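User: ok so my PI wants both of these folded by tonight, can you help

Assistant: No problem, let's get them done. Here's the first:
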Amino acid sequence: MTEERQPGAWHHDYFNAPEVGALAHLYRGEVYRSTIWRTRLDATTNWSVVSLGIALSISYSSPTASPLPLLLVAALIAVFLYLEARRYRYFNVWRARARWMEINFYAPLLRRIPHEEDGKWQATLADDYERPEHHISFKRALGRRLRRYYLWIFSVQALAYFGKVTIHPEPMESMDDLFARMEIGLAPGHIVFGVVVAAYLILAAFTFQMYRLDRERFKKSPNPISMG
């Protein structure tokens, strides 16, 4: 007759040897999956940087070159941002599971102390495997990718665009020159100027709002990326 394991016992006593081994393999699998998805995140960021570099090379190749590629590349970078935000939500699932096991299993085991909620964290992890779902919203994922990388990429793109129209084919002398150079087909220059500035300010405001929400969550939870 096996001895019944009580909640609050040592972790190496709460699980038998085969269970500890299975949990260790499970942890390794979650770390591996989070690493793979982290690589996918880096790929879309690299695509954005390379695309912006190509647009810069084209627009700055000569004083008479068109600044339009620097505007068109913004749309392409926005597509990459959308893809990366979706990938980040999947990456967050694997990372959260790995962190959940680190905090609730490995950390108490290393400290040789009983966990106060033995049984609860296992149930939470089991529920996540039985009914998997994203742990963060798409909006929050979008805000995090903007804060980490994409707002900076858009900043370089905007500065490069305005730098191009202010110095080529020759330095501008008035705002009328700026608006004239920003005309795109039938769209007046002042409209294009307003749209570009408004789009950047909206992105910056959205990024700051998501950062503020993350900061509030960090204050409430000691481990905000976990499943708890």
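One down. Here's the second:
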Amino acid sequence: MATLIENVDLRNRNSVFADRHDAGRQLAERLRQTVGPGSLVLAIPAGGVPVGVEIAETLGLDLDLILVRKVQIPWNSEAGFAAVNMDSDLFVNEHLLSLLHLSDEQIEQQVKKTMATIEQRNLKFRQKRPFPDIVGRSVILVDDGLASGFTMRAAIAYVRKRKPDSVAIAVPTGSADTVKMLLREVDTLCCLNIRESYPYAVASAYRNWYDLEDEDVLALLDKGK
């Protein structure tokens, strides 16, 4: 079981962060005493990038992206029934999938679309650079929140294959059930705002919530260089 770092004063509260940048800076302060100087921050685009940039900049750490993505429900682009990573490892929300009655052809089509998006992002955001060598290195996986956790599970699997020394998750906010599930899969989990309410929405933790465009991500990555 992983070490859990949270801010108990923020438990079950909404609107606790001004925006993702504010949340990233608060996370960095919580991580300051536990993170080694050679750690690598891997941010999940798009929402995890401003959080990751603030952590890396505040703590003087290297930053890169880990490209994982939810597999969208065909008629609802805001929701996903699975997640996939750059190795094409698929993590399926079996309960949700059983309710959707998708055909095998529909599932395959959605997975292919998702992998194509990952490839496009690898070209646009990373210029297809080789993934950093993380053998024996401490890795911090960053996103703007944990809802179902399937996207983060895909990120953990990708990193674990590459033999890091340790894997940590750093997120501003998360569902209590998802935090409990992911504690079994990493060494440290830092989530400042854990909420037990249902339904859970990542956006509810932020006073200023907005969608990030590709141009926003590129500008943040340029700032973080």
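The longest helix spans residues 104-126. The chain has seven helices and nine strands. Good luck tonight!
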